Amino acid sequence: MEQPSTLEFYNHFLSTLLPQLHQAHLIGRYAGGAALQNHLNPLTSCGCKVYSQNDEDGITFEILRRLGLQKGVFAEFGVGNGMENNTLALAALGWSGFWVGAEDLGFNPNPKAAKKLNFHYQKEWISQSNIVNLYQQGLAQIERARCDLISLDLDGNDCYFVEELLRSGILPEIFIVEYNAKFIPPIRFKIEYNDQHRWAGDDYFGASLCSFSDLFEAHGYFLACCNVTGSNAFFVKNQYKKFFNDIPEAVEKLYASPKYFLTGLDVAGHPTSVKAIETIFSALNSGIETALE
């Protein structure tokens, strides 16, 4: 009996495996949709992705809509190579802002060499002792006085960095932070501060949702939402609470458990391209130059 060739074996393997992978993918998409529909917080159902890792962009846009904030200034600490984060979509809306991170960007944020910039990136290792200075330097580079939204995701000392910003009087309308969803309410957990902390891929990172809630509550913020994967929490100034009467108040009801298996589903159209991102920043910077002429 003739033995099947390697190619025939490979094709048979794919024909068997691919339907199973497709089925698993569909189950994941269904689970994601069900999680959005069944959550007690109506804000969660607004989740969708432009350039965020998961559904954070849609939640951000809905919060901004409720606040009546159409244009503003953003800051983001920890952006990877800049191709996927929580504020790139705001740049597409025409917001000015700055990022701070330890990696090189995967694109040119000033492709047309504009002289005056609406955006600045600073490559720097962030620590508790320099984060306030980095914030001030970022604002100075874009000639702005304050930020309306700050996002912070550094896989480690996040709670200490946030505390340093808040304690220094840096109080944006919206604060987005990564929380450690393994530690469910009412657990209060945060790692010990370490300047050189690097995430090892395990559960030793950041702080629990309750620990963050305690910190923000002490500085005049309330928890508005957690995204569907249990990655990011959204805190808003208390003065805007009247616009969120439809959301639960208890942290336990707002908490989203870790659903990291939903990360990366095809919820944002085609793959991200450098050309599209550079087009966004070209428009952002040319807007300033046009205004100055």
TrEMBL record:
Superkingdom of the source species: Bacteria
Protein known as: Methyltransferase FkbM domain protein
